[in-house]
Each structure stands twice: as structure tokens, then as C-alpha cells.
Amino acid sequence: MKIPAEIKIVALVVGTCAFYTYVGQLVPQKEVQPPAEVLISSDITTEEMIAIGEEIAQGKGLCLTCHTVGESGALRFPDLAGIGSSCTTRIPDKSGLEYLAQSLYEPDIYIVPGFNPGMPNIARPPIGLTNDEMLCVIAWLQSMGSEATVTLETRHSYNTDAPEAE
Fewer beta carbons below 10 Å: N end or C end of the chain? Predict the structure, then answer.
């Protein structure tokens, strides 16, 4: 008995799909949830901003996907240990606050020597940090090697909608 070619092709396609479906089910599945919403109240202290900034860097901001803290060797992007003090000397005539803000809002303007560009603008989607979240990340960065001076009222050239300090 001869089996028609069309039936052989259908059997091959169904068999192949069944095989790959089975193999696909063997691969461990990991459910990834969106990062938890960070609530930032208007009366937050700088110390609380540092803690929230670290949480954002590890979660929603994805900073520690590429950056490290306190490591050396072949790194993808600059290590952040001591950034609070080194940020004041990276670009002449630019304050540490302005350097950190520029690094987050426009990361390709200044590239640390020895590293390639590639950091995304985390103020835009898909990361999309708010100005308050960015200030918390800046407070966290300042706290590594220096005293954090940022508050939610802090103004810099990228956050002109912050309220005037009284």
C-alpha cells in the first residue's frame, strides 16, 4: 500500500510540531514580574532617598545589570564604587550633581575613558524613571564616596520642573 505524499507531509509537520512542543515544555520557565511600584512621598529624607535609589538601581532602573559596585577587572560599564567623590572631577566646570544627572538623562554625552557607549537613557521607556526616582538614584550614587546632598527639591539642568527651594 502506497501512502500519498500529502499525508506524509502532514504527518511530518504534525510530528515535528509535537516534538518541538515536547522539547519546549522541558525548558524551565521563569516568570518575570514587573518591578514593584516605588512610592516616593513629598516629605522623604535624603537617607530614605538613598535606600529607595538603591532599590531602584537593583530593580526598575536595571543599573546593576551592567554596572558593578566594588569590582575590578574586565567590566562592561564603569564600577560605581566611589562615584560620589569621583563625579566631581570627571568633567571640568561641571558639578557632581550635574555630572550624575547628565549621566542618567544623556549617558552618551560623556563616556568614561576605557568604556564604550551603550547605556540607555533611563528616563525614557522602556525603563522610564520619573524625575523623583532619578533624584533618588542620584542620592544613592552620591552616597558612594561622598555625602548625599540631594532632596526632592533639588534642581539640576535636566529637572527643571522641581519646585523652587525656599
Answer: N
C-alpha triplet 17, 21, 23: angle, nearest 5°: 120
State the Cα–Cα distance between residues 162 and 156, nearest whole angstrom: 9
Q: Domain range spanning residue 66?
A: 46-143
Q: What is the pLDDT of residue 131?
A: 93
Residues in CB range of 147: below 8 A, 6 or more apart: 84
pLDDT digits (tens, 9 = 90+) for 38-95: 889 989 999 999 999 999 999 899 899 899 999 887 788 999 999 999 999 999 999 9
Asked whether residue 27 is domain-assigned, the answer is no
**pTM exceeds 0.85:** no
CATH number, domain containing residue 66: 1.10.760.10
Task: Report if residue 83 sits inside a domain.
Answer: yes
